[in-house]
Amino acid sequence: MGKKAWTVIICGALILALGMGMRQNHGLFIEPMRMDLGWQLGVFALALAIQNLMWGIAQPFAGALADKYGTMPVLMSGVFIYVLGLVGMAFPQGPLMFHMSAGVFIGLGVAAMGLPVVLGAVARMVSEEKRSTALGIASMGGSFGQFLFAPISQSLINQYGWSFALACLAAIAALGVFLALQVNAKPADGHIETHEPKQTLREALHEAFGTNSYILLNLGFFVCGFHIAFIVTHLPMFLSTCNISPDVGATALAVIGLSNMVGTYVSGVLGGKYSKKYLLSIIYFSRAVAILIYTLMPITVFSTMAFSVAMGALWLSTVPLTSGLVGVMFGTRYMSTLFAITLFSHQVGAFFGAWLGGYFFDLTGSFQGGWLASIALGLFAAVVHLPIKEMSVRDRRVTA
After folding, report:
1. Any stretches that span the bilayer, and where are they (predicted)?
2. For the whole model, what pTM was predicted?
3. Which residues does 237 contact at the CB level (< 8 Å), separation at least 6?
4. DSSP secondary structure letters along 333-396
5. Which side of the chain, N or C, has fewer Cβ within a 10 Å radius?
6. How many helices (H) and strands (E) does the chain have?
């Protein structure tokens, strides 16, 4: 990979660290904000659920704009909206405004700074042989951000309070403007395969939604979103209900991020050598087993750290494999858009993971319903990937 490709990969990964990685630690703010503001958990759960849903809804549009105009203007817009959302979250003026800032604004901002936009740029800068590894390296950015900002966020909350902590994170996120200037990959750049036919976006969408394997991939990614949103939103408070310090929740999220840096890279490398769909089935089955074992054991600091290591290795390791399958099936010309639609399914799952966790807790005083749903969905995702046909839809037609 050349110098320009490495610049796009590294700066793209850092943008994911600021966007995806930073917002994965918002669950740390729920308990101190709830105590200060006197709001029910459902208010915060709904805000983060809206955030995930808006992220998913806006993602295909952000991907389509990146496919048409290039990544840089989309990323710049995302940074601006994201910072506005963090500032509004730091100084909430009631639940409605909190839902607008923490939900709508941050969701839109993260969408424009998200995986489809960044990974679409990365995919166009490298050859097909190196693509899975490059996507894995770039995807590590989200995990690095989670690892980095979990202890920073908790330390700022402990020393200065949640409002000042969020204002500091907004200032840090603004640095994404300088990174966006370096990720200026345009649709005509790099390694768009010469065998890809000329298509309009409408034709590409028609082709994708007429492909059963693409539909199954979307169903599986729904489960990934549910798992991640439920855990990052509710794990810190779940530990509080078990009389474990909030600092352990921050450490657990950091450990998940650190472990997933390894897991995502290994997933990308393995995806270049072995069947991506079978690797995805193994990941989702392993998640279900890890959650089952954790919830059956006594909840201690040790069991939580062990769970964080295991879950972290499986966390965003789905991303290079899922995005890689989109590239295999449809090529890279409209990869940002098509993967963004897949990520919309992911974010619909995230909406339910964040919201139902809070709803069940307000209803029953327990997170048990969310854990059980996570186990069942993990088994479902393990099965649903098995029928996927791992080849180009055009090659499949020729073979047929």
Report:
1. 37-57, 69-91, 97-122, 134-154, 160-181, 215-236, 248-266, 278-299, 305-331, 338-361, 367-388
2. 0.76
3. 27, 30, 31, 41, 249, 361
4. TTHHHHHHHHHHHHHHHHHHHHHHHHHHHHHHS-SHHHHHHHHHHHHHHHHHTTT---S-HHHH
5. C
6. 20, 0
Report which residue type is found at 324.
G
List own/partner pairs for 361-366 with CB under 8 A and 24 or more apart: 361/41, 361/45, 361/234, 361/237, 362/40, 362/41, 362/42, 366/241
pLDDT digits (tens, 9 = 90+) for 275-299: 999 999 999 999 999 999 999 999 9
Give 302-307 contacts, CB < 8 A, sequence gap 24+. Answer: 304/239, 304/244, 304/248, 304/252, 305/251, 305/252, 305/255, 307/252
Residue 184 DSSP one-character state = -
- Residue 364, judged by CB atoms within 10 A of its CB (0-12, 13-18, 19+), counts as exposed
Between CA 132 and CA 135 the distance in angstroms is 5
Q: Which CATH architecture has domain 3-399?
A: Up-down Bundle (1.20)
With tokens 């919830």, the residue in question is 295
Element (H, E) at 72: helix 71-90
In the chain, the percentage of residues whose pLDDT exceeds 90 is 36
Rounded distance, CA 317 to CA 307, Å? 16
Dig out the tokens for 6 from the structure: 């490495």
Whether residue 249 has pLDDT greater than 80: yes
Domain ranges of the chain: 3-399
Tell me the pLDDT tens digit for each residue of 253-279.
889 888 988 888 888 888 888 899 999
Q: What local confidence, expressed as pLDDT, does residue 194 receive?
A: 45
